[in-house]
Amino acid sequence: MSESFIEYEAAERIATITLNRPQAANAQTLELLDQLDEAWRRAAEDPDVRVIVLRANGRHFSAGHDIKGVGGGGGNGQRPALTLGGIYATEAKRFLEYSLRWRNVPKPSIAAVQGVCISGGLLLCWPCDLIIAADNAKFSDPVVNMGIGGVEYHGHTWEWGARRAKEMLFTGRAMDAYEAERVGMVNRVVPLDELRPATQELAAQIAQMHPFALRQAKRAVNQTLDVQGFYAAVQSVFDIHQTGHGHALSESGLPILMLLDDMKSQIGR
């Protein structure tokens, strides 16, 4: 039996999905992402659920992709075939299609983020409609240092603004919770010990609203972004992202995913 990395609870019109791999800073194996996608599907299909909350156990929201676990069939440490086609297929499903699907679930969603949210962690919180951050939260995407232009789901320009996105990518520095709030990526910042109650309180407030009107309001905002080019941009930048893997393969025979262990020194688990 496979290990469970996701906790799911539905009560009082709120589905709460919890990443539960705290010993690894909730780093993402393919198995974790598949389980997470199933939890999103479950919440989306439950007629009693009006709001979805995504949160994480432990000190950190997510340290991004687990280098050993994103390459094989789950958390067994197998690595991907060293072909660009194999890498492309794996990432298109787990790192792009999943994130876009979560973004378009026709119910409001809220991410509660504490600790680090690095690279692949952004693929989990950015698709959510609202983000509540603990005062110790830090957001970063330092993969330019690994020879690639940014994580697979390119929300950077939309979430940070063009000039700030360039600064963050060019330098690899982390954005703290208050800066994230100032640029509009985060809705509000709360003390760490208030993160979960504040998130649940907001979810409960939204859950009282008319479900069809919530669906329509979310659709209206998302479609406005899509008309401005969001969806097409994310799809096209994913292909640009893959050239980073191709470059790494041509230089060393190794995909970028195998070179990202250097980033783990930032986590301070």
UniProtKB/TrEMBL annotation:
Q: Which GO terms describe its biological process?
A: fatty acid beta-oxidation
- Recall the GO molecular function terms of this protein's record: catalytic activity
- Pfam families membership: ECH_1
Q: Which NCBIfam families match?
A: PRK08290.1 (NF006140)
Name by which UniProt lists this protein: Enoyl-CoA hydratase/carnithine racemase
